[in-house]
Structures are given as structure tokens and as C-alpha cells.
Design brief:
alpha+beta; Glutamine Phosphoribosylpyrophosphate, subunit 1, domain 1; eight-stranded mixed sheet; 8 helices; 31% helix; 25% strand; globular
């Protein structure tokens, strides 16, 4: 028997002080919702799905209800889930009418396919018995205000939220993004779990980036980019600069660091973030679990909202990995 573990994240960015408590509380609630069942034998795959469900339903995050709006003023959701025992993977992208896209991704795992998008994903969800909702139920006033503000700005790019780090006079980089959008939301959510049978699973869900081009798909639903799990190494879920994360396959790279170099999860997460920044000037956060049940969490943004179950009981939740 393996001692179960679970870790979740709620986005890596400069979280405003007045929103930090909500981010911490939401992550804690996601762990709390499944921790007891995981200890009683719930499979890791189900644990990460349910933990992400909690985060998708919480309007605090850029996932499910509360997601950012694209350039057309619509919500498009992406999600993925992966089983480390079999390497089975399910993903959906550009979903508009469902609160829990990770549930659709889980259903995809039971087919011969790995990835469905847009109208096809939504039709599959309905055929699978998942109830659609009015897309307006996903929209929150906070994101409507942001959409209207950004639409009024000439020349705004969705990647203004991910400008390179500032460099000081002595050539060292500060540990936070800079530019006119330091508080741009990047609240992708994710979970990684290890169950009593020793199986690892990971899941990630997102609304993407504010004012993204309709149809844009980021890293979250891509195997090895935003989501990865392998019982032989570990599991990881990412949040941050999606195009950069895709280019370095950051979650797969992080898990390979566990295998190839014998790194701890913290070291592997740090190496993966360093790889992202060194090769593509990217900014992100990463949570990990290795096959021994050790946690890893790292970011090169100012904050990453996260929570994990403590081995001796209780839950650690914070937005700062330095505490």
C-alpha cells in the first residue's frame, strides 16, 4: 500500500493582494474535497478529476466559471486528464457550453481517441450524458470588465501578460513579470494525485489567455506540455505562458528530470521552469508528484496558488513557494 498524496494549483501570476485569500481558499477546498476519499481508496484518476471540478466551479480562477473572454467576448475552455498507469490521455479544447470540460476529457479516455475540439467535443459530451449549460452562466462580471478594458486598448496583445522578466543593473533577473499588465489573470487550474495502489494521474483545465484569438489552444490540453503522468516517474500540471510551455514540453521534461537525473520533484520543477525561461523566455508555474509521493512546486512568476495534503494530516495552501 502506498500513502496517497494530492497537490493542486490555481494559476501562476502576480495575484493581487485582495484576491490572494480566494485563490488560497479555493485550492485548499479542492484538496479537502477529495483527500479523505483518496485515503479510503479512490483512484488517482478520479481524485484529480474531482479536484479540478471544484476549481472549475469556483469563479476565482481562469477555468470553468470565471474564465477569461476571448477576442469575440466568448469563453472557450480546454482541459486534459492523464492516467500514469496506462499513459491513457483525454483532452478537449474550445468548449463553450460546459462547466466541467475535464469531465468531457475523462470520457474521451474511454474512446479510441485522445483529443476532441469545438463542436465535435460538445456533441460528444452530450452523447455521453454530460449536460450542457447556457454559456452565459460561465461569465463573471470581473472578466467582462477586463474584456471591455482590453478591447479599448490600441495594439493590445494577449501575450502582453507574459513579458520577459526585468533585468537589474547588475544583470540579474527579478522574480516577477513586468510591463503594463502585471496582474493579468493566469488562473489555469490543475491537480496531480498518487493513490493507494501507487498510480499517478494529472489533470489541467483552463480558459486560456484574455483576448485570445478564437480557436487558440494553449498548453493545458496537450500531452506533455501542460499535463503529464507516468507511474515510472511522476505527474505534473503546468500554468503560465502556454505557447512557451508547448515548445519545451514542460511537464514531460519535468518528469524526465525525475528519471534521467534522479532529481527530487522540487529540483525537477525548478529545472523545467529554468528550461522554459532559458529557451523561450517563458513564465510559468508547475506542480509535481513523483512515484515516491514527494511534492514539487515552483514558478518564475511572483505567485503560484497551490495546496497539498500534508503527510501527517492537514493541508498546506499558499500563493508563495518561498514561505
Amino acid at each position: 500500500m502506498t500513502e496517497p498524496r494530492i497537490i493542486v494549483h490555481g494559476g501562476a501570476w502576480t495575484i493581487p493582494a485582495d484576491r490572494q485569500k480566494a485563490h488560497i481558499d479555493g485550492c485548499r477546498a479542492a484538496v479537502d474535497a477529495v483527500w479523505g476519499e483518496l485515503q479510503r481508496g479512490m483512484p488517482a484518476l478520479e481524485a484529480v478529476r474531482l479536484a479540478v471540478n471544484v476549481l472549475e466551479a469556483d469563479p476565482t480562477y481562469d477555468a470553468g466559471r470565471g474564465a477569461v473572454l476571448n477576442a469575440d467576448g466568448q469563453i472557450e475552455l480546454d482541459a486534459a486528464i492523464m492516467d500514469g498507469a496506462t499513459l491513457n490521455f483525454g483532452a478537449v479544447a474550445a468548449v463553450r457550453s460546459f462547466l466541467h470540460p475535464v469531465d468531457i476529457a475523462r470520457k474521451v479516455m474511454d474512446t479510441e481517441f485522445c483529443f476532441l475540439v469545438g463542436e465535435g467535443a460538445e456533441r460528444f459530451a452530450r452523447e455521453s450524458g454530460i449536460a450542457a449549460i447556457d454559456p452565459a452562466e460561465l461569465v463573471v462580471e470581473r472578466e467582462v470588465r477586463l474584456f471591455n478594458e482590453l478591447r479599448a486598448r490600441a495594439g493590445f496583445s494577449t501575450h502582453d501578460a507574459f513579458r520577459p522578466q526585468a533585468v537589474t543593473a547588475d544583470g540579474t533577473a527579478c522574480n516577477c513579470p513586468v510591463g503594463p499588465e502585471p496582474a493579468m489573470p493566469k488562473g489555469t487550474v490543475g491537480a496531480v494525485a498518487l493513490d493507494a495502489a501507487g498510480n499517478i494521474a494529472a489533470a489541467t483545465s483552463t480558459g486560456g489567455t484574455p483576448m485570445k484569438r478564437p480557436g487558440r489552444v494553449g498548453d493545458s490540453p496537450l500531452c506533455g506540455a501542460g499535463t503529464y503522468a507516468d507511474n515510472e516517474t511522476g505527474g505534473a500540471s503546468a500554468t503560465g505562458f502556454g505557447e512557451g510551455i508547448i515548445r519545451v514540453l514542460m511537464t514531460r521534461s519535468a518528469c524526465d528530470f525525475l528519471r534521467d537525473g534522479g532529481a527530487s520533484p522540487d529540483e525537477a520543477a525548478r529545472k523545467a521552469i529554468d528550461l522554459l525561461h532559458r529557451r523561450v523566455s517563458g513564465h510559468a508555474g508547475l506542480i509535481m508528484l513523483d512515484r515516491h509521493g514527494r511534492y514539487g512546486v515552483h514558478c518564475n512568476t511572483e505567485h503560484i496558488a497551490h495546496a497539498y495534503a500534508l503527510p501527517g494530516g492537514g493541508i498546506h495552501a499558499d500563493v508563495d513557494v518561498r514561505r
